[in-house]
Amino acid sequence: MILEKIQAEVGRALVGMDETVELMTIALIANGHVLIEGVPGVAKTTLIKNFARTLGLKFARIQMTPDLLPADLIGHTFYDMRSGEFKIRKGPIFANVVLVDEINRASPKTQSALLEAMEERQVTIEGLSLKLPEPFVVLATMNPVEMEGVYELPTAQVDRFMMKIDISYLPEETEREMLRRKNLGEFSEARQVVLQNELARARRETMTVHVSDAVIDYIYSLVKATRLDERVILGASPRAGEHLLYASKVKAYLEGRTYVIPDDVKWLAVPVMAHRIVVKPEHEVEGVDGRIIVHDVLESVEVPAE
Fold first, then answer.
1. pTM here?
2. What's the rounded Cα separation, in Å, for the pair 15 and 181?
3. CA triplet 96, 32, 191: central angle to 5 degrees?
């Protein structure tokens, strides 16, 4: 099973990340992008690098800084003195798995260069559209505590991410285990355990997973309920419903089922929808955020009979 292989191999380099790895695997198979938020030192970058290694795909890391230009991301044209022609030098975005480290440190102009890549799977250089390799997934990290030298991600870009995963400190026993294994030198880098044809097969087979009308209605009801909540300015978008549908199909597939159940939807609702919800300021200062809205919606919307 593709998920178990990835989790076991990432476990050679990290501890306590099985659920996060499962969400990342679901997004990968569903052809979605992931935003990972967490305080410094919780192994966000290490997680993504080792996750990419298990896939054996072309990997690129882009360290976002305020002075980074769009051309540094997507590439640019240059004049070749030998041939006497202008040629294109492709940027690091031309990879299968792209780690965008500290995405909120880049200027809005550079962040916007990611929009076309994430949604259209292509970039435009000097008017020429170039397709990105397949598969293509952006795994971006963000530090929630830095306030200086960062730029808030525009809502349109946040909505491009299928999921937002929050990584906090490890549970006490897990962190003790991490320190013990570090002391004994037991950690090692992950190796490739998934072949490209396995990933392609998983993507094909996921599309055949059945979703009943009742489950589709349930997904729509959840999305709609976030928009009707009086505490929000902006609820989950139609794209959120689409992403929740696709992710639920992958969740079912990874559990060996040919059909989606409401529990698949409920398990994925927070990582897929919460980051898209904009809460009114007067409720935000009271501690209300997208996760609370989604949890409340899950409690209020009737679950269909399986």
1. 0.91
2. 9
3. 45
